[in-house]
Specification:
mainly alpha, 7 helices, rod-shaped
Length: about 210
């Protein structure tokens, strides 16, 4: 039985399930391809956002003590990391939902096809192959469609989750490096200002 024969014998419920699975498949591949294409850009953007978050605080960190500067910078970095992780996780929940629902949509189509087979047997009074071939074929097709949507969604979900974990670790490392650099720069600036102030006072006393 080819697909055209299946489509001719499929009722409204089977066709609706088919379009639902088709929409799920399109959504899965669209989200996954966009994530793959934007992986490098997303990482670079996240790094730049961390740098900008600290750059905005530099002027406000001057009058604070070392511990206060460290605490404020850490909070700013943690807040920015959380925002970048939320940005990276967009669409991943959709992949997880599709991976969970697609097998059950296909299973419902399978049950519906078997129901048609039983109705055909009951109507004809004969349990021959001619009566059950088309409904059973419809059930198997829906099973295959459900799996063909669910398996890529599961793989795409796992790949995206792995990327997000790697991005989170990279952002943590980058944040630590930025924090150390910022603290050292602030400490150096503070010592330079103190030394200049002391020299000016000595020069004034002389």
């Amino acid at each position: 039985m080819n697909f055209s024969v299946y489509w001719q014998h499929a009722d409204a419920v089977s066709k609706t399930l088919y379009f639902i699975l088709l929409a799920m498949s399109i959504a899965t591949w669209t989200i996954f391809i966009l994530r793959l294409l934007g992986t490098r850009q997303l990482k670079q953007q996240a790094y730049s956002q961390l740098v900008q978050a600290l750059a905005k605080l530099k002027s406000k960190l001057q009058p604070l003590t070392f511990e206060q500067r460290k605490a404020v910078a850490e909070q700013a970095l943690l807040r920015q990391i959380s925002a970048e992780k939320s940005q990276a996780e967009k669409g991943v929940s959709v992949l997880g939902t599709i991976a969970s629902l697609a097998p059950f949509v296909g299973l419902f189509g399978t049950v519906w096809g078997i129901f048609h087979a039983l109705v055909a047997v009951g109507t004809s009074g004969q349990a021959g192959l001619a009566q059950v071939a088309t409904p059973v074929g419809e059930a198997l097709i829906m099973t295959g469609l459900g799996l063909s949507v669910a398996i890529p969604a599961v793989l795409a979900y796992n790949i995206c989750v792995r990327f997000n974990r790697g991005l989170a670790h990279d952002l943590q490392d980058q944040a630590h490096s930025l924090l150390i650099d910022t603290m050292l720069q602030q400490e150096t600036s503070a010592k330079t200002e103190t030394k200049a102030t002391q020299q000016s006072l000595v020069g004034g006393q002389a």
